[in-house]
Amino acid sequence: MNDLKRLLHYLGPYRKDMILGALLVFAETLFELIIPILMADIIDVGVANHDIPFILQKGIQMGICAILSLLTGLLYARYAARASYGFGSRIREAQYEKLQHYSFANLDHFETSSLVTRMTTDVTVLQNAINGGFRPMARGPVMLILGVGLSFWMNAKLAIVFLVCTPILALTLFFIVRKVSPMYHRLQKAMDRLNDVVQEGLTAIRAVKAFVRGDYEEEKFKSVNDDLMQTSQRTFHFAVLNLPAFQFTMYAAAVLIMWFGGNMILQSQLQVGDLTGFLSYVLQVMNALMMISSVFLLLTRSLASAKRIVEVLDEEPTLSSPKESLSQVPDGSVRFEHVSFRYSKDAQEDALSDISLTIPSGQTVGILGGTGSAKTTLVQLIPRLYDATEGSVLVGGNDVRKYDVEALRDAVGIVLQKNVLFSGTVRENLLWGNESADDETLWEACRAACADEFLKRMPKGLDTDLGQGGVNVSGGQKQRLCIARTLLKHPKILIFDDSTSAVDTATEGRIRASLAQMKDMTKIIIAQRVTSVMDTDQIIILDDGKIHAIGTHHDLLDHDPIYQEIYASQMKGGDPHGAEQCKTS
Ligand SMILES: Nc1ncnc2c1ncn2[C@@H]1O[C@H](COP(=O)(O)OP(=O)(O)OP(=O)(O)O)[C@@H](O)[C@H]1O
Questions:
Q1: Which of 227, 333, 515, 584 has the fewest CB atoms within 10 Å, counting from its CB?
Q2: Superfamily (CATH) of domain 334-422+471-551
Q3: Helices (H), 204-356
Q4: Which residues line ligand 1 at a C-beta cut-off of 6 Å?
């Protein structure tokens, strides 16, 4: 409940709409409640005395009440729509803004698909609860109190008969809410799983086709889809019990009232019109109760969604800038002092243990190591994509935790292993690196990254539209565009995480030659090929999260048997990428 209360503050700007909406619903309810009184008058006075003008007069009054009730209802719908959709939009904005401040460690806590569901389906559930629930919530209690009051005013004995029936309803509602509440949690989780499978299946659809795994993926989809269907069916099977329970009670109450009321008419204690009017109130009160119970069900579902939304909003950022942060990185030097790192508290072992190394500003360093030896993990600590669990990482002589995070990341350009381009033109993608770059600067960066030749062959050049995620460019072209984008940042430290794996060796050589011109930049190059790093100032060999050796190509070739083995195997043409050979133990 607290989660929902917290989210209601996003309704703040729509307070006026909600108040106006509530007043309109109140007015609508009053107009509806006047109708049975007029109806009773028509039967008891107009029909009994054959008084046509009286019947007409009351009929017109009934018509006016009905029209006013319709108009207030329509006007209410406008305010409710504005408040509920505005509320949903503000929550989505808050979630999206929060996500922008998530560190990699925060992102590791949630599946991407779960975040998507939390930002879409869960918000829609809350939005619908406001849109669909506000009217019955405002109308139900008014109708209930006035309806019961007026029915007592009409005939107290009959009102007691009617009230005796209501505990059945309360019990049914209690049973349904208790049963359904945990089911809604399961339902949202089943929705997460479905989104997960759909997202993964669509992202990897080319691989699925290439491996002819369509049947397997279909089976996987069918299983989560069936699970969602069954969970939904079970949940709504209970939720809809609400309606028959109400109908049963309503008819039972109507029969009892007709029986008692009929007897009272026979004993001249009641008039036919009063009985008809009374029955209208019974229907209205029942309706009010039905509305209140539907609000309870909406609320139960909303609580599950509110909890999931608040989890996203309350996720404690694992990285933040200190209050008095450094806004300038003085130089591109990097030092690791006894650094250990573990991805999560639950992880079995450290990904990096006791790493100490020094990279002077302007040096070029190569990192070699087998798959999973923690090369990527190591470099991710430099721009604080993660924070070291133990020890310190220093950039420009200062602990990275002392910098303003944005200033630090501005000084570090990292070309990720998994390249990401966005839909849009080449120019739009490149400008990510430097928003104010002119065409000449863009082409210069493309030249350094060897991306100029293929771009010039494209009829639209920099204005070439990249399909979703750059599907219409090759892997190597994509890598070169990502390099150009990072070079445009003019970072003090440039990190290549296996960023030239998809380009041919001649092109890679040309990229290395242009990087060599950028003397003031510290360059850290993770590679699988010895040739990619042999002319660097020092090579770090990682093994299983530890430093196995550090030295120049010649030092290592002279003294390190593992490096000698990697070199020999790659130079002989064994495995040109040498990934497995780099595994040193
Ligand atoms: N987000 C993560 N959460 C938990 N463990 C992770 C995460 N990313 C990597 N790891 C684990 O940390 C270890 C080091 O991974 P890392 O990606 O740094 O290796 P790598 O040397 O860069 O591998 P490769 O050459 O295959 O890219 C691996 O055991 C990996 O499973």
A1: 227
A2: P-loop containing nucleotide triphosphate hydrolases (3.40.50.300)
A3: 205-210, 214-239, 242-266, 272-314
A4: 108, 343, 351, 369, 371-377, 417
